[in-house]
Design brief:
The complex is a heterotrimer. By secondary structure, chain A is an alpha+beta fold. Chain A is built from 13 helices and 15 strands. Chain A has helices at 44-47, 56-59, 68-83, 89-121, 132-138, 140-161, 181-211, 213-218, 260-263, 292-299, 306-319, 329-349, 403-422, and strands at residues 5-9, 19-25, 31-38, 170-171, 174-175, 225-231, 234-235, 241-245, 251-255, 264-267, 276-279, 289-290, 368-376, 379-387, 393-399. In chain A, strands 6, 7, 8, 9 and 12 form a five-stranded mixed sheet that branches. A three-stranded antiparallel sheet of chain A has the order 1-2-3, covered by helices on one side. In chain A, strands 13-14-15 form a three-stranded antiparallel sheet. Chain B is of the alpha/beta class. Chain B has a single domain (17-139), classed as Rossmann fold (3-Layer(aba) Sandwich). Chain B has helices at residues 3-11, 28-37, 59-67, 88-105, 123-140, and strands at 19-24, 46-51, 72-77, 113-117. Chain B has a four-stranded parallel sheet with strand order 2-1-3-4, with helices on both faces. In chain B, helix 2 packs across helix 5. Chain B is globular and about 40 Å long. By secondary structure, chain C is an alpha/beta fold. In chain C, helix 4 (72-84) links the parallel strand 3 (60-66) and strand 4. The longest helix of chain C has 14 residues, at 293-306. Chain C is globular. The chains are: A alpha+beta, B alpha/beta, C alpha/beta. Chains in contact: A-C, B-C. At the A-C interface, strand 3, helix 1, helix 5, helix 6 and strand 10 of A face helix 1, strand 2 and helix 6 of C. Bound molecules: iron/sulfur cluster (3 copies) and FE2/S2 (inorganic) cluster. Residues 183, 225, 229, 231-234, 240-244 of chain C line the site of one iron/sulfur cluster (SF4). One iron/sulfur cluster (SF4) binds next to helix 8 of chain C.
């Protein structure tokens, strides 16, 4: 090869967010540069300024329609932190139910709609087929079980949050509405079917993992730092401390939400409107970390529920801890789906979930600076607002989940690109026959 | 009017403020009438629109006027307590507070809009209000020019 | 089986919620998807922008456009969609009115860029990216300033049922008929038409679950908002913030209607109102600022700058 070559993939598809990919190959045929170009941003940090802080939870879900619930909850937690408010226990349980329901539906949709088409049809099938509609046409059973899982999660979000997309019931001091006993009973009835669909998903995922083990262990194995919430070392998505693990698997720090500016840095690359989040003490680019399913499963000592713990152990046997295998994200996603399902069941069976004591009546704004952190399906999500004595926002800072991964994505794409363009490694990869041939 | 025509007009020396005045039929419009018959002087910039009560003024009227080319808007009604429909003007007063703040938030000088109370016999108060607003707006210049 | 209908799903700057809501028709997808011939849908199928551009003009039956034109690329996609699609749908409140991203028009883009890239708690001294990213439009205009739409389907997001109804009608070649009522029409709360002595912020007190929230003092935009959502928030305890935009005709100024309604219910001293409602622009115009009267004046201010 003599000329420098630029390969542009625009837009990057089956991904949430606006993105393009620019790969530059040098004259020597070596991969010179990989850019993940996030091509838009909407300036939430700016236009939150001047809004009453309690309205933030009703505005920020629009950052992402696929994970609006984590935004809603991180936001309401940030307000509560600034005003020094602790909601009643039943409200926290409702919020946990909400975020677990979202975790379940988000992971299900990700696995089936965004990842499964490649596995089902093989990565070289035409785009008109290699999509979720294709799965529906060629493997209706698989599609139906997927849709039912997503439906369970989304509809449960609606039941707890009034709207599945852009929920409205979280309020500083609790929730605006309890869950009625009737509604709870309806959901309890649906648990067995949900668990059955979950089991089928786990089986499919395991088959995929075993079929593609060569890809998983060879392509895009990228050591980075990892970040995720844990509650005393236990995997948690609603509350806890943020744990950072270094590429060698050593825990660097467990920090409290309000200390995040010490540990979290944002690098502004010249080629992306999404900033690159990194571990500040290590600097950029050394401190590039990844969040999301695999990161959480790497940083956690253990899962919170028994079936999920068993799944985690199985996964660790295969890929170790920490796992740097980018394709192991799919596996970790399944581990987390199991935990979400188990948590949903436990929460629905908890009598306190139908308590009507879900909202404080004496919340008062005060000048403050509050940080709310939860785990969105795609990673650690930070909302931080400062407000005046009337509770109006004067400054906001947001670390959105996906941005934790952008630098890591570039890094792993670089590894993947080298593997393909330089080592021609993909030619020797053992790819299984697609489940469906078209 | 074409953009260009408007443009020259708003920037030229002889620009005159365009004021839209919404006047309640029962007091302010009568007051305006009286001002005319009593030959009280006030600037001719206000185009008066008669409404049966300030409570009838949809906030959209005020904002649409600004959007469509007015440089200022006056709302004139009966004194609180004197509204012929009991509380129309109280509703207007409440709306006004929010409109004024919203106008300001949108980057428009709030001195371009004015709410006043003037009874049927208060021709002078009515006229003074028009004069005050007109002069205020004259100082601010054309609304379209505010951005330069 | 009849021929599938060709569709293109485009996105400007958006949150993907409208498409998530489409996917949330759940099992009905099994009926709908096979009837669609997907020509472009970035989040689902691997078609690229070039693919869309290569189709003959007017060759796609139906296009959905979600989001606003924040960047040149969004704008290009919007115009391309208009060219390629016979019927173009403004999908969701962003696309219909400017939506939440339109709140950025409250500020100048320079200030927004500063907070985002240069100066906040976790960034310092960054530069606005310029390489392989499309430039920003300095202000968000309503999409309808750029192209004509055939159908407006508002909501943030439009409900899954609404989308299903609309898509089913389209597939059958029928007109989409949408009921014209406000959110209040669907609200189960009792209304006594009593004026309120004070305004409450939503965290204050505990609301009576059976009475109109507005009559209890909580700002609710139900009467100024198109009720296509069937009152999903108000019937569960949360006030309406107007996410479905104005009641038809949707060219109305929703914020003005909301302010009008609040004045009717709270004819109290201005100070008492402003004490609890210091941000009317962000409250009443939350989803429709770019297409409102004030928003238009704001856009003109931007035009004046570049002239
Ligand atoms: S209308 Fe709402 S749901 Fe749809 S893209 Fe815009 S913000 Fe998202
Ligand atoms: S104002 Fe709000 S609470 Fe009252 S009836 Fe209308 S929608 Fe319901
Ligand atoms: S009740 Fe109001 S805020 Fe809630 S979905 Fe309907 S229109 Fe949107
Ligand atoms: S009648 Fe004059 S303000 Fe109501």
């Amino acid at each position: 090869m003599t000329e420098e070559r630029v390969i542009k993939i625009d837009p990057v598809t089956r991904l949430e967010g606006h993105g393009a990919l620019t790969i530059t190959l040098g004259k020597d045929g070596k991969v010179k540069d990989v850019q993940f170009n996030v091509t838009s941003t909407r300036f939430f940090e700016k236009f939150l300024e001047g809004r009453p802080m309690e309205e933030a939870p009703r505005i920020v879900p629009r950052i992402c329609g696929i994970c609006p619930i984590p935004h809603h909850l991180a936001s309401v937690k940030a307000v509560e932190a600034a005003w020094g408010v602790t909601p009643p226990p039943a409200a926290i349980k409702l919020r946990r139910l909400l975020i677990e329901a979202k975790q379940l539906s988000s992971h299900a949709i990700h696995f089936y709609a965004l990842a499964a088409p490649d596995f089902v049809f093989g990565p070289f099938a035409p785009p008109g087929v290699r999509n979720v509609a294709g799965v529906l046409k060629h493997l209706p059973d698989v599609a139906v079980q997927a849709i039912k899982l997503m439906q369970f999660g989304q509809e449960l979000c609606r039941a707890v949050g009034a709207k599945a997309i852009h929920p409205t019931l979280g309020i500083p001091g609790g929730m605006l509405s309890p869950l009625s006993e009737d509604v709870r009973d309806e959901w309890l009835k649906q648990i067995p079917e949900m668990m059955e669909n979950l089991q089928k998903t786990v089986d499919l995922a395991k088959k995929v993992v075993n079929d593609y083990i060569d890809v998983i262990t060879k392509v895009a194995v990228t050591p980075t730092y990892y970040v995720g919430l844990t509650n005393n070392g236990v995997h948690d998505i609603y509350d806890g401390k943020v744990r950072v693990m270094n590429p060698d698997g050593k825990v660097e720090v467990d920090f409290d939400p309000q200390d995040y500016p010490k540990y979290v840095g944002e690098h502004v690359p010249n080629h992306s409107y999404a900033t690159h989040i990194y571990y500040r003490p290590a600097g950029y680019p050394d401190g590039i970390w990844r969040a999301n399913t695999l990161a959480r499963c790497n940083v956690a000592d253990k899962m919170a529920t028994p079936m999920a713990q068993a799944a985690l152990e199985e996964m660790r046997e295969l890929v170790g801890r920490p796992s740097h295998h980018t394709f192991a994200y799919h596996y970790a996603r399944v581990v987390e789906m199991v935990q979400a399902a188990e948590n949903i069941q436990a929460l629905l069976e908890d009598p306190e979930i139908v308590s009507t004591d879900v909202k404080l009546s004496d919340v008062e704004p005060r000048a403050g600076d509050g940080v709310g952190i939860v785990e969105a399906p795609r990673g650690t999500l930070i909302h931080n607002y400062e407000c005046d004595e009337n509770g109006y926002i004067v400054r906001a800072n947001l670390i959105v989940a996906t941005n934790n991964n952008i630098a890591g994505i570039e890094k792993s794409l670089m590894d993947a690109a080298r593997f393909i363009f330089e080592q021609q490694g993909h030619k020797d990869l053992k790819l299984p026959d697609p489940i469906v041939k078209v | 009017m074409t953009e260009a025509a408007q443009e020259t007009k708003t920037t030229s020396e002889d620009w005159e403020p365009k004021i839209v005045a919404f006047c309640c039929n029962w007091c302010s419009y009568a007051g305006a009438d009286l001002a005319g018959t009593s030959r009280i002087q006030y600037p001719p910039n206000a185009r008066i629109i008669r409404v049966n009560c300030t409570g009838r003024i949809d906030p959209e009227f005020i904002l649409a006027a600004l959007d469509m080319g007015a440089d200022g808007v006056l709302v004139s009604g009966c004194h609180p307590g004197d509204c012929h429909y009991t509380s129309g003007n109280l509703k207007m007063r409440a709306r006004w507070a929010l409109i004024k703040r919203a106008v300001e938030q949108a980057g428009i000088d709030p001195r371009r809009i004015r709410l006043q109370w003037a009874s049927a016999s208060e021709a002078q108060i009515f006229a003074d209000g028009v004069t005050l607003l007109t002069e205020q707006v004259r100082k601010l210049g054309p609304l379209r020019g505010q951005w330069r | 089986m009849t021929e599938p209908v060709s569709v293109a799903m485009g996105q400007g700057s958006s949150c993907w919620g409208c498409y998530q809501s489409l996917v949330d028709i759940h099992l009905r997808l099994a009926d709908v998807l096979p009837k669609l011939d997907i020509k472009f849908w970035a989040c689902v199928a691997d078609f690229k922008h070039k693919d869309l551009e290569s189709y003959p003009d007017g060759s796609i039956a139906v296009g959905f456009y979600e989001g606003v034109a924040r960047t040149e690329e969004d704008l290009h996609l919007l115009k391309t969609m208009r060219k390629k699609c016979k019927t173009l749908i403004a999908f969701g409140s962003c696309s219909c009115f400017g939506g939440i991203p339109g709140l950025a028009n409250f500020y100048d883009i320079e200030d927004a860029l500063k907070v985002k890239f240069k100066d906040n708690k976790t960034v310092s001294g960054g530069q606005v990216p310029t390489e392989n990213v499309p430039p920003f439009e300095p202000v968000i205009r309503p999409n309808s300033d750029y192209v004509d739409f055939d159908i407006y389907l508002p909501g943030c997001p439009p409900t899954s049922d609404l989308i299903f109804t609309a898509v089913s009608a389209l597939l059958e070649g029928k007109e989409i008929e949408l009921p014209p009522y406000a959110v209040c029409h669907y609200c189960n709360r009792e209304k006594k038409e009593t004026p309120i002595p004070e305004i409450l912020r939503p965290y204050e007190g505990v609301a009576d679950p059976d009475r109109c929230l507005l009559e209890q003092g909580y700002v609710c935009l139900g009467s100024a908002t198109w009720g296509l959502c069937e009152g999903q928030c108000v019937n569960r305890g949360a006030t309406c913030r107007g996410c479905f935009g104005p009641v038809p005709p949707i060219s109305q100024d929703q914020g003005a209607a909301g302010v009008g309604m609040l004045g009717t219910y709270a004819p109290i001293e201005p100070d008492k109102i402003l004490e609890k409602c210091k941000d009317p622009l962000g409250m009443f115009w939350r989803f429709s600022y770019p297409s409102s009267h004030l928003g238009r004046i704001r856009i003109r201010r931007e035009e004046a700058k570049t002239k």
